[in-house]
Amino acid sequence: MALLSVKDLHVSYGAIKAVRGISFDINEGEIVTLIGANGAGKSTTLNTVAGLIKPESGSIELEGQSIVGLHAHKVVQRGLALCPEGRRVFTQMSVAENLEMGGYTRSDAENKETLEKVYAHFPRLKERRGQVAGTLSGGEQQMLAMGRALMSKPRLLMLDEPSMGLAPILVQEIFDIVKQLNAAGTTILLVEQNANMALSVADRAYVLEIGTIKKTGTGAELLVDDDVRKAYLGG
Amino acid sequence: MEEEVMTEKRPIISAGGGPRLEGAARKTLPMPVRYAINAVVVLVLLVLGELMIDGGVVNRYQSTVLEQVGIYIILAVSLNIATGYLGQLPLGHAGFMSMGAYGCSIFIIRMSEALGVGARDFVTGTPLALALVLGGLVVGGICASIAGIIIGIPALRLKGDYLAIITLAFAEIIRVVMLNIDDVVGFDLTGGAAGLTGIPGYSSFLLVFGCVAVVCFLTHTMMKSRHGRAILAIRDNEIAAEATGVNTTYYKTLAFVVSAFFAGVAGGLYAGCVGVLQPAVFGFMKSIEILVMVVLGGMGSMLGSALSATVLTILPEALRAFSEYRMIAYAIVLILVMIFRPQGLLGSYDFSLSRIIERVMNRDFPWARRAEKGDEAAKEVGADA
Q1: ipTM associated with this complex
Q2: Is the pTM of this model over 0.90?
Q3: Are residues A101 and B248, on separate chains, in Cβ contact within 8 Å?
Q4: In chain B, what are the domain boundaries?
Q5: Dist CA B287 CA B153 (whole Å)
Q6: Which site in A210, A222, B260, B282 is 20 to 30 Å from A48, CA atoms measured?
Q7: In the A/B pair of chains, how many CB contacts fall below 8 A?
Q8: What's the gap in Å between the CA of A43 and the closest CA on chain B?
Q9: Each residue of B135-190: pLDDT tens digit?
């Protein structure tokens, strides 16, 4: 059975239909990516799965149990962590306090253990643990946001545009970490505009266009697909 | 008291301007000792104040002003929970204050009639009268929190200016209800425009500042707890807080209701201090006055709220002759602070006696640190040359 299974999801913002009948599955241990242009409905899909937005219709199941309509904080308890778009760290808290907040749904003893694992993935966060998060660089803030999401020990980690606004060298670093996390056993759902990068790390990918799924396949397949190349990879 | 010193590895997480001794063993005070030290200091100050009043060093007028100071400290500290810690901008604090004032005084008046407690008993402080007063303050707080829940649940869906306007309107509704409820319902409750009279003068220096201590203590412990962290997370970034598993609706309402409860207690104390309640007192300007105290002191700083509440209460009294110009002075002070120190006088700094004692225990003084830095700078210069 798929870890996460979304069927015929419809989401609207008032009169505007953002997602029109999306279905996809994620299996344990995979990296799955949703790619597409601005306004394709990628982030909306992610936010809906995370419980930040209520869908109009459709089903979202985590290991066969419906999580539709659950509040975001309940969804986190079920083992889905969202690393939201635009980083959104707690700017006035220190790095360590941010991570501690990430383990909000877990016990202190668990957090102590998870914290060491997160620091192992992100040594830079350990160096900066006493620093106020608002003064970190963009790349470090992205790492912090990812580390914070990991602190809840998620079954599925959802990353919303982790490469947004980062220098190419940092984008590479972030994606290396994504691969590393996956190798360490975390299932990842990745939403990206940087299709090239996303497809190169993903096991499977879904191409979204104006709220519907246009194409699906393995990352490697789509990377050489003519339509995808034309539309998202610049020829 | 026995000096109990524990040596432990410094925790990674430290609030505010954390100490610099990275990794090194640092002497810290265990929590019970911290509480004990603070409790002793507070008790000494309370007794000292009471002795000064009894001894006639502080006259009746001055002690009334002191009571007002304490009441405004509670109001500012409680509003600071909603503005400084939760990061919202409610403009209806006077509404909660009036709910508390009316709730508390009506309860005390009715109950003392029923139980046969005279006005004299409140001054001499019989156990029954004291119990009534404490009960009244709690009733006032509860009345205000009910108002807080009613307004909080719809209002907290909104942000910033929308929340400000909706709370402002709600406080006006409370004021108008207080004014007209007697006529509409047809029996004596608030006394309408003529005011509620016959409130025994139960507020005293000890009671007011005892409440100040309790309110500050409860606020402090709440903000240091897991709940407080959740509230601060909402202020920093609501979506991220939600995504990390914080029930944002619950915690926003909780902070708002706690803030209203303390405002209600302050209202109860105010009623006992002034003796007469008129709805007109709890108008829009009162809310603004309290907000000014918080903004001026520094949003998120309890000490800042307390300090500016003290200054802004005493100043108009000292400048009694010019009290008409008080609002102009407010405006000018606010403009200057916003231009030169937008984070408020104290920013988010908060005073901690234990932290200072720990510094002394570790010989970690600001001037020593400056000297160290100077040495390093000198070394660097030397290396360059």
Answers
A1: 0.88
A2: no
A3: no
A4: 58-351
A5: 20
A6: A222
A7: 81
A8: 14
A9: 999 999 999 999 999 998 888 887 778 888 999 999 999 999 999 888 888 777 88
